[in-house]
User: Fold this.
Amino acid sequence: MRFDKVKKHEYVDMGYKGEYGLVTENAEIHFIELPKFIKKKPGIENRLSQWLWLLTGEEEKIKMAEKVNEEVKKAKAELYAMSMDPKERELYEERELARWSYYSELNSAREEGIEEGKEEGKKIGERNGKIAEKRETAKRLLDMGIKMEEIIKITQLTKEEIEKILDEQKNNIID
Assistant:
């Protein structure tokens, strides 16, 4: 794409350097004649042809394009909504708003549930960690020959829990 050359009496110097050079290398312009496109009957193998079939209005090809290109599907839905009479369009927009609201609330509830789950998991982990630490302390105290009553006071474990630790230690020695 290049700037047009103009006649000297029509030229207004805008102060740009290289006004006769390239406008941009980031854009291309294609002229497509829809009647020729329809006559040629290409498939839907590329994105351009998928969009062009949407412009032609041929329902069969549009359905095929929708299956492979989500954007074409969204555009068709939007075109349909824009072509409704005002009352139908209002009802459509209300349904869409309700749908968006539903999914937004669902997503918020999911995120809230994840956060609650993390907090609960953290509490359980801390509790289990404290219990494991008390059990390790009890094992060391038992190895040192400290009496059970003292171990109960120090670790705040029950007598049954300490006896279970003793049984485990005996089983480990036998194994």
Q: What stands out?
A: Residues 1-69 form one domain.
